[in-house]
Amino acid sequence: MRVIAGKFRHRPLRAPRGLAVRPTSDRLRETLFNVLVAGDPARLEGAVWADVFAGTGAVGIEALSRGARQVYFVENAKAAVAAIRANLKSLGIEEGFEVQERAAAAALLLLEAQAVACDYVFLDPPYRQSAAYEEVLTLLAQGSLLKPGGIVIAEHDKHFDPGEAVGALRRFRKLAQGDAVLSFYRRD
Length: 188
Hints:
Blueprint: H1 26-37, E1 48-52, H2 58-65, E2 70-74, H3 78-90, E3 97-100, H4 104-113, E4 118-123, H5 130-142, E5 146-157, E6 165-166, E7 169-177, E8 180-187
C-alpha cells in the first residue's frame, strides 16, 4: 500500500496486522481521486476532508498529499489509530490533520459543534456494519458538517447498497471495481 500521487507520491503506508482493517486498495483510491479531480488537480487544493472509519488513514493521507488543507481522521479502533499516527509520522506530516479517536457518530457531532465544514467526507465502515452507513449518511444529510456542494463518498461491498437517497443526500454516481463500490452523494 502506498500514496498514489502528490507530494508523498510512492511513499509506503502501513496497516495493522490481521483482518480488522480492510484498507482501500491503491487502485480504488486512484480511481476515487481521478473522479474527484476530473482532470483538474486544483479541485482538491485547500479542501477540508473527513475520513470516517479511517482505518490506516490512506484516503485522508492521499487527500493531504494532493493539497487538502485539513483532514479529520475518524477511527475508534486502537490498532487503526496507531497505524494512522505511524503513517502520518513516517511521512513527516505534522499539521493539517486531527485524529478523532471515537465512534463515528460522536466524532461527527463533535466536529459539527466545532463548526467544521467539509468539502469531502469519505466513509468506509467495516462491510459487515451496514447500519453504520445509514447512521453516518443520515447525520450528514441532516447536519451542517457537509458544505453546500460538498460530496460524500461511501465505499461498500458490491452485495450491499446504502441506497439511492438518504434524507437530503442523493447518489449521483456509482463506480464498481472488483468487489468494492464507490457511491457518490450530494445534497439535493
